[in-house]
Design brief:
Blueprint: H1 2-13, H2 17-24, H3 28-35, H4 46-53, H5 57-73, H6 79-97
Helix pairs in contact: 2-3, 4-5
């Protein structure tokens, strides 16, 4: 999810992977692996990527978290049920804060 999105942003901006790598201070191979979801995107890079691509850090963080959740539940038979339960709990917490 996040890898695909950051690839789309890079291509839309007309940037090369080596240019993104220079901004992140990583090698080009790492950028390639992030975009193909072979390697996870480090949370610490989200702010730089958001600024580079002119998008919100919140959007990238949402996708980063979605990738984490997906990785945990993707092979579980009750994965979707667990996600739904977690969503209910988050809604309860949000309601209690108001």
């Amino acid at each position: 999810m996040l890898g695909q999105k950051i690839r789309e942003y890079r291509e839309t901006k007309g940037l090369l992977q080596r240019e993104v790598a220079a901004e992140l201070r990583v090698d080009t191979a790492y950028v390639s692996k992030m975009e193909s979801s072979e390697k996870p995107v480090s949370k610490g890079y989200l702010k730089t990527l958001a600024k580079l691509y002119g998008t919100s850090e919140a959007e990238l963080l949402t996708l980063w978290l979605a990738d984490k959740v997906f990785d945990v539940v993707k092979d579980e038979s009750v994965g979707l049920k667990a996600i739904n339960f977690a969503e209910e709990e988050l809604m309860k917490k949000k309601k209690n804060k108001q």
